[in-house]
Write a structure and sequence with these properties.
Layout: H1 30-40, H2 48-69, H3 75-83, E1 90-91, E2 98-99, H4 101-113, E3 120-121, H5 129-143, H6 147-166, H7 171-174, H8 179-196, H9 200-210, H10 225-245, H11 261-266, E4 289-290, H12 301-313, E5 324-328, H13 336-339, H14 343-347, H15 352-356, H16 359-369, H17 374-379, H18 385-391, E6 394-395, E7 410-416, E8 421-426, H19 439-450, H20 456-467, H21 476-481
Parallel strand pairs: 5-6
Antiparallel strand pairs: 1-2, 3-4, 5-7, 7-8
Helix pairs in contact: 1-8, 1-9, 2-4, 2-6, 2-19, 2-20, 3-4, 4-5, 4-10, 5-6, 5-8, 5-10, 6-8, 8-9, 8-10, 9-10, 12-16, 16-18, 19-20
Length: about 475
């Protein structure tokens, strides 16, 4: 595999000696090349298609954070941030509280991810927006940056996070790590470095420091820990950039070093690490990030699409367990520990998290109720007897045709009591690059999420401000609109 790490000896990606202190005859490290991208990218060099994607995902992230702010389980994170010290220029979405940038990012990153409704880069298996946006909003407010600077830094964070996560796609999960907690830290550090005007050398140090800051295991045991990972990544990335700006040095070999990120976490050698740096700034990996139409694990989405389609074929009426002989959902073996096992817990989930990560339960919800939305998980009981009776009939054997992690396929085979068999396979779920959501669906999702805590007029104003983000002189008015109160 091509590493994508080492350029021509003595040259940066542009053919010049790097400004990070790298001697002209020494190959640049991956951190040095990423740092140069972060510090030197011009807003005009970001294609409009990528900028439009970023605005849509930014709006989506704000809407999810607003909806999360109305949930009781997010309050402890805000209380913790306040205990660390209040005051500052950065606002917490939904609450309106002012905090120092790192603390605001801790809360906002958690809010964006808390409902499991935020975007995912499919190939990288990475929630791209939550850490990058949390860091971008917090530091942009702190620095009184304009909208174009915010958008540029956010795109930089998206791109770097996707590439770091993508280099270990699937393998992080296999080792028990949550890629968003790991790669998101580097993304946030790059965002903070860009908005604070760090030079290439200090940005290299910030990325190096991230290697000892990045964290997030998937040992969750019914806890809320996964919700925290993007917030902690955003917080840690900002702290790393702050340390670097203060003169604290970080290792420039954090990615390919013998004790670096990929060696320590995944056992990879430098030759096996592919960050794709040779096309950095030309190929925009972040443009392939998928928006979620359903607030549950992205591994389950193709199954939801398939179940809803089959329900529609049967007339769109609720299916009853007495009408069903068996439901077969072939599943990628590598994701079974996350979304199908143990089967008895997935068929009758006892917690919200178990429900959101259950193919059996979510397929049953789709077949019975005809929808999978926030109300499914947050406004209705998880133990609806009609849903559980259908979920009990779902089996999830290995899927021999899966191309995971390139895509997250799903198939539902419905065997009815009257002898009929219907099947639907979805190779790539709705919202992914091969099957994108319509603009009306994206806006509808934002309005629905934000409308859970804000009045319709305020929701409309946020939507308009994000649409004009490139021309905003600062973020004061936008962030004021994103708070239910002015803290």
């Amino acid at each position: 595999m091509t590493t994508g790490i080492t350029p021509t000896v003595g040259a940066s990606p542009t053919g010049e000696a790097l400004g990070s202190g790298t001697p002209a005859n020494v190959p640049a490290t991956a951190a040095e090349r990423l740092a140069r991208f972060a510090t030197e990218l011009c807003a005009k060099d970001i294609p409009e298609q990528v900028r439009a994607m970023a605005r849509a995902h930014l709006l989506d992230g704000i809407g999810i954070a607003l909806a999360s702010s109305g949930m009781d389980f997010t309050r402890p994170v805000l209380d913790t941030a306040l205990a660390l010290g209040d005051g500052g220029r950065s606002h917490v979405i939904g609450y309106g509280t002012r905090l120092p940038a790192a603390s605001a990012a801790l809360v906002n990153g958690t809010l964006v991810h808390a409902l499991d409704f935020d975007d995912t880069h499919i190939g990288a298996i990475y929630h791209a927006t939550a850490p990058a946006l949390a860091a971008a909003l917090a530091v942009a407010e702190e620095q009184e940056a304009d909208g174009e600077s915010l958008l540029t830094a956010y795109v930089i964070g998206l791109e770097i996070g996707c590439r770091v996560a993508g280099a270990g796609a699937g393998s992080f999960h296999d080792r028990g790590f949550h890629p968003t907690g790991i790669a998101g830290t580097f993304a946030a550090a790059a965002v903070a470095a860009r908005l604070r005007g760090l030079d290439t050398a200090d940005t290299v140090s910030a990325l190096g420091i991230c290697g000892s800051q990045a964290a997030g295991t998937l040992e969750l045991a019914g806890s809320s820990l996964k919700r925290l990972h993007p917030g902690w990544a955003a917080h840690s990335g900002i702290v790393a950039a702050t340390l670097a700006a203060s003169g604290f040095a970080g290792p420039p070999t954090i990615f390919e070093g013998p004790r670096g990120l990929f060696a320590s976490h995944l056992g990879m050698t430098p030759a096996e690490i592919d960050l794709g740096l040779d096309d950095l700034g030309n190929r925009w990996m972040c443009a392939d990030t998928a928006l979620k139409p359903y607030p549950c694990c992205h591994f389950t989405h193709a199954f939801v699409d398939a179940a809803l389609d089959l329900r529609s074929q049967l007339g769109g009426q609720p299916l009853k367990s007495t009408e069903i002989e068996e439901i077969i959902c072939p599943t990628t073996p590598r994701i079974m520990p996350s979304v199908t096992e143990p089967a008895e817990r997935k068929k009758a989930p006892r917690t919200l998290y178990e429900a959101q990560f259950s193919v059996q339960y979510i397929v049953a919800q789709a077949l019975v109720s005809g929808r999978v939305d926030l109300a499914t998980f947050y406004d209705q009981p998880l133990d609806d007897p009609d849903v559980l009776a259908v979920a009990a009939k779902v089996g999830c054997p290995p899927d021999p045709d899966s191309d995971f992690p390139v895509r997250f396929p799903g198939e539902v085979i419905l065997r009815l009591a009257d002898g009929r068999e219907l099947r639907r396979r979805i190779p790539t779920s709705s919202g992914t690059p091969g099957n994108p959501l319509d603009e009306a669906v994206v806006l509808g999702k934002f309005r629905s999420n934000a409308g859970r805590v804000l009045a319709a007029d305020q929701v409309r104003q946020i939507e308009e401000s994000v649409g004009e983000l490139d021309s905003l002189a600062d973020l004061t008015d936008l962030m004021r609109k994103c708070g239910s109160q002015d803290g």
